[in-house]
Amino acid sequence: MKNRWNDKEARKCGKNLLKMRVYTSRLLGAEEDLVLHGGGNTSVKIREKNIFGEAEDILYVKGSGWDLATIEEPGFAPLKLDEVCKLAQLDHLSDLDMVKYQRMALTNPAAPNPSVEAILHGIIPYTFVDHTHADAVVVVTNTAKGAARIKEIYGDNMLVVPYVMPGFILAKTIYEMTRDIEWEGLDGMILLNHGVFTFDNDPKASYQKMIKIVSKAEKYLKSAGAKVPKGPKVTKTDPLLLAGIRNEVSNMWGQPVLSRLDNSPASVGFSNLPNARTISNRGPLTPDHIIRTKRTPVFFNKDFRKNLQEYKKAYEKYFQTYNSGEQQLDPAPRWGIIPVMGTVSFGPSPKHVQIIEDITRHTKKAIVQAEILGGWKTLGQKDLFEMEYWSLEQAKLKKAGQSKPMQGKIALVTGAASGIGKACVESLVANGAVVAALDISNKIEKIFEQSEVLPLQCDVTVEKQLEKCLEQTIAHFGGLDMLITNAGIFPPSATIENMEEATWNKSMAINVTSHQRLIQLCVPYMSLGFDPAIVIMGSKNVPAPGPGASAYSVAKAALTQLARVAALELGEKGIRVNVLHPNAVYDTSIWTDEVLTARAKHYGLSVQEYKTNNVLKTEVTSKDVADLAVSMLGPVFSKVTGAQVPIDGGNERVI
Fold first, then answer.
1. Catalytic residue among 60, 315, 552, 586, which?
2. Computed over its alpha carbons, how large is the radius of gyration of the chain?
3. Which tens digits make up the pLDDT trace of 51-100?
4. Which domains are seen in the chain, by residue range?
5. Residue 139 and residue 576: Cα distance in Å, rounded?
6. Catalytic site residue 552?
């Protein structure tokens, strides 16, 4: 375990203990093998004056919802230390009462809810307290002889605590265990199946104790030969299988969700283990992971639908066995194992999927290491159920807030690097969707950097490139629900008499044929999608063509006819197909200031008059077109297919 302490950086904190607490917390949070996605917590005890000038001891403890990797000073909840410590002396305290009394002890009512471990932090008699869920230590404890191995590694100067529920019960247990011991003789504290605590009055010493303890466990694993096997690098997947799995899992979840394939060599190696199904079925790395990953993954073999039904029945049985009045959560898995292909993670957003993928990556490694040590053994089902349905953990899930209208849905947009296509991507993301953004320009990968967008360079006239982009989309997001086929060109003006063959052929290839091939390739995946819909970008030139634009107008007319036929053919699959006919959208790359000025001058108009030269005297922007396109993909147009909608501010020739 790397020691990240930097004396120069530490000195910047001066004598400000809270700043120092932020610094050392971030050191811990920077290591995934110590802290993962909100796990772990830290605290500092500071003597300071209240509003009356009276000195009192304040416990600043990590607030719920904050991540140690990015925590700031407002992320620490300040509590009156004496009140917190008194709670440990009570014989009983319910979860809700614990939260209530901890909030009553706050000196700042606007602070976040204190960590559920606040009472434990309070009773540890040191200024700085660090708590992590260090992988290496938990791996050792998650074996048949875990407690004995811990003693072998650390000796008698480590307080080893059998697993109990976090919160008041854990604090009370340790309060009773430490009544008759000298804290000065302890190197730290290990909670079996849970994690590590270190403490000291010096922040550097407490941090270094953590690094030392975890490093010992890592060396122990290494000496035992606990290495994760790697499989071959998978270059080709089965996108239809992945789309089918995502469809079934979404139905079990009760909403569209995303899925992502992890086909890294380590993941493939794990999926190929002969006992992968058995060992992964024993429980998560730490109990707090269960609200993210559920107790077990689903194991896929020949019939994924049957596998998911069996998983559902097993989850319902698990719930019925241990529930005492709780309401059952959805029975959908959060991750799965696909032999040869790797593992797959499920979630309603890229952030959720990433969290699950990160946790399962650590879990797979831990399982293999523990098996080499003699066998992966986690908590029993009853203990795990109590954690999964713990009221305080469920409260974390409810804080997620209301989802956006297209949450969990997957779109593909072509011509996405600029103009209408770029605006469509932005509008889809704003509505909660994830998007595969295709464009021939290599700039596409730099335009979109958010996790909701998968930027892919693609020449839409090359079928193999389209196929590859679809495979990448399905592997990364899980399926396909929506398509905005927008890529196109406006050829140079030329009469029919003077039309060059190359100009005509290029317009047909890009403006018609590429759309037909893309739709053809997308249909199998969209058939497994949710409220699948296609929007095709037509043009005002379809109902109102002009001279000199036959290559463009004919191609767009053919594209519109293709859309009409597609609406007829795909209706039985539930796929809607509609057309937008934009006109005079001037905030695109082809309409430079020079071109706009020249065109306005040609008609004897100012640039603004030229932009608003329509019935409504209004400007039509790329965003206007994009917002309408996204609306056509949504529930407002759920009963509409085969429609052609102009968006042009009102064009007299079209009307």
1. 552
2. 30
3. 999 999 999 999 988 999 999 999 999 999 999 999 999 999 999 999 99
4. 7-214 (3.40.225.10), 239-398 (3.40.225), 410-585+620-647 (3.40.50.720)
5. 51
6. yes
